[in-house]
Predict the 3D structure of the following.
Amino acid sequence: MGTQPVPTLEITLPSRGRLYEGKIPDGKVTIRKMKTGELIALESEASADQDRAAVIIDNCTILPNKFPQRDLLMSDRFAILLALRRWTFPTAGYNFNWKCQHCPHINMVKNFDLGKLDCHMEGDAVNPATNEPWPTFVEPVVCMLPECGKKVELRFLRGTDEKVVAQAAKRMKNVTGKVEDTSLMHRLARQIVSIDDVKPTDIVQTEHWIVDLDMPDTYAMVDALDAVETGVNLKLNLDCQACQMPRVLGLPITADFFRPAASKR
Ligand SMILES: [Zn+2]
């Protein structure tokens, strides 16, 4: 038996290659299906779902001009992951659980249609959520903080940042012993290019600066980035099945993403 050729598919990244200095023309990249052996190897390593996703994206994405996979925007990387999942398992819905913040109920979402997620492609005229025109997708994003009055310049995260952020959050958990998720702070600290035109030099100092900010200032940065960034909108508006309280949740990536429940394959 010879080696089977691996099927490939051309897709267009949501950024259309805009922030890659012309190295990925029109944002066109090739993806290939993952081999069973690769999936087994990944699963036997028992790594976190987030790490698995990163390995899958790196292995299954073929980029022009030797562009490093880890230099892709996080938003483009997720679009690749989603395209791979939908191409590999075209009829499988996605199952995941989420815990209510108001009652102890654990909600189970069955057969979620991943094709329903909105995607903002570079060049789209209007944001369907606000009916406003999308701002131009550029870096840095300039943001005025409403409470402290400072001007902050922000950049978008790349694949290289993902691991660093995850490690920082894990380290923090080990040090403090607290379960709270500090990844927003770690993420934002790495996205800050300048504060009042001064480039931050120490990442820990920047993290402390963020912790001391009033919440409206932090939200201003998050919103400014969200308002511009291209990619799949991962925010889900869900209601608890027990207490009906609404929750805005980022789509969780679990093992089911890579290996759908047997009955649905
Ligand atoms: Zn509830």
About this structure: The chain has a mean pLDDT of 89. The pocket of zinc ion is lined by residues 100, 102-103, 105, 240, 242-243, 245 (CB under 6 Å).
